[in-house]
Request: fold
Amino acid sequence: MLIEPEAKFVSIVLLGSFNPTIFNPDWLFRNELITEAEFDTSQVEFVHPQISHIRTDWLDLQVEPERLVARTSEIPIQLRDLVFRVFGEKLPHTPIRMMGINLEVHFSVGSAEERTRIGQLLAPPDIWGEWSKGIRAGDGKSQGGLRSLSIQQSVFDWDRPNGFVVATVEPSNLIKKFSGIMMRVNDHYEVQNVKEVADASEITGHLASEFDRSLKQSEKIINIVMGLKQ
Amino acid sequence: MSTASLIPHSVSNHDQDEDLTVPSDPYAADLYTRNIDSEARKFQTRAVNRYVNTSKDGALFSNTQTQDAHVGHMTTNTTNQIKEFDTNPLPDDLAKRITRTPKRVATFFPIQEWDGYVLEVNSRSFRARLVDITNSESKGEEEAEIPLSELDEDSQNLLQEGRLFRWSIGYQKSPSGQKIRVSRIIVRRLPAWQSEDLKAAYSEAAEISQALKWE
Reply:
């Protein structure tokens, strides 16, 4: 990336039908999905029929009856392999209808003034007419301007599975002195027939074939905004 | 419902010793079920309700929950009002309800990465074929001899001929901002059929890359 981020998260989000109570460290270890060392240091926040939340040293896993979120700030390939093995090997009959491969980064552009300048490039205040004076006013915490911007691509010039890509830009609340930008790219996939999905095969197939490519593409999109920094 | 990531926020307004597990798997039940009195269980259920409602209330679901008299069991009458899925990673109304600042965590930033597969494992090292996945103008496959000391014990136990791995060299940034250079080898735990497919793909890619170099 053009700017080294302060923080970077990769997540896989699945929408389908899940049993949260299955997803506990013991089950993951017994099924050889995590190592003994990871099991020993794992933390259970909750294991409940409505929600399960566990952590290992590299994995943050949160499961609800209709949504699963697996997240890491470490090497992403282990996230992809874990999710693939859970639903490609251990629980292949889980109906999963949608998947998001998400990349989120927080990076500093050096100063609040530079962040404001980039925000005004992305969302020019002048188009707001008389209100533009009010938008431009303030500084630091009271600075007006861009709060959140999302851009979507729905049509692709290559044979991509059903879905879309959304990139979101916002101020970062992880980086101090109002100099941080957060960018998130949601690479969204759907099965051919969302209403009649029977198992996890279609989505795990997309995960296997698209994961690395998706993250590379997301980094390119993020680099576009990083490249605006002077 | 969005497929973009919800930033997990744990609610720790209950005693750490309180166990909120209601397992359905009998084996898990042996590990997680404890003998606790009914008052403690009611407390647990209220704590879980707070967590569920904080995460979901108004954003994705509306839940009406009643507590069954039986210990550890909660009956949920759920009216799911699932929004038309919102592709934003964090729906705005949910983001507003989560007031806690996201926690910094250790983050890894790769500088150079290879995909590889094991050719031979010796007593102190292993030989592997590597494909550079960082540099698109790479020379195809390379062979390398890598000390076993580069891997943790669990990963060493997984090593065998044909096993795939990813080797990443980069920086680890701690939550406090300290940066150290690290080398990590992740041994891929994949079904056998996928390992074979990937190995074939790497070899093909390397051959194509080599052929293009000669043109």
User: Anything to note?
Assistant: Chain B touches chain A through 57 residues (CB under 8 Å). The longest strand of chain B covers residues 107-121. Chain B has two domains: 26-97, 107-214.
